[in-house]
Specification:
The chain is mainly alpha-helical. It has 18 helices and no strands.
Amino acid sequence: MAMDYADFARELRDLGDPLADEVVKELLDDDQVNSVNNLFRQIDTADSQIPAQTPAVLREYFETTREFPDWVEDTRLADTADFFRHHHLPASAMQATVGLVGTYLSPVGAYTLHSTHQLSHQPHRRLSQSTRIFMGMGDSDAFTDHSKLVPTCQKVRLVHAAIRELHRRSGEWDYDGMGAPVSQLYTAGAALVFSVGVLDGMENIGLSVDQNEAEGFMYSWAIVAHFLGVPDKYIKEAMSSHGRATELWHEGREYEWAPSDEGRILTRECIDLYESYMPPGFEGAVPAFLRQALTDRFADMVDVPTSAFDLGADAATLGTATLLGGPVGHNPVSDEVVGHLGKAVERVCREAFTAGQETEPQMADRIG
């Protein structure tokens, strides 16, 4: 019998990542965080040579977690390639805006991000680190042995483990009320937000994706979830198909999404940054875009402001069959906004790098 969301949440809410957690405990005990972050910059691809000075526990981690799972199928990866060939720019724009705000709509997720990122005055740096996975998923070698995406996921997995361990050591985390910090429920839920939530958002603004490509995008996030440490059992249960993932997430969203002060703060920072990149005549486009993609119900939870910007015809009036195929309709105004947002995401990453800010995932050695 398929798990419902209550079953899924009950099993994953308090579950950490034993393999990564043990690695991080040893690195923190040995005061190795700074040297580890330096090593992160030297591991670029899944087939990179691990630097000689790498602590043994970290070397073993990188070597044993870089292999693709045995359930990966080339035929399904062909659908993934088709999705990114046709939709890489809008998908990246959606993931970096609608997807991120979706994670802020989880009060536990927003609290965790706000309490640990230590980057409140460096939005370029924080958002560039957050978007490395999204941008890397569209690379031609993303799902090959020369992948740059895989080591990014391996590093993020350790970042999550460090957050869990630092909160454990602080003695201040409310385990009864919030479950484990960055639990597997959070990680699997984020994968669903960035896949199902993005496809939903694309549909809401009138961007059509055919069924095979939607399945390919879902499959790419199942693989990413594996490299982020989600046990394969739950990936197969939650992300075996776009239909199953949509069913589970739409049920879960009713449990997980709610207003929070931290969610409002992070959403406001995200909107302000991307608004600063919009050209003249597009003032208010970012909140208008978020409201249409998320729907007013969820946008209101994080105080996405209303805007006079007109995105044009609603998706429902475009004569499209939207996500699951049929004639493709286009909303020229939405298309243009998505194009500007895609370019903004690229600029955020580029300008963080040229400003000398760290764009690699980085482990923390403290929270605050």
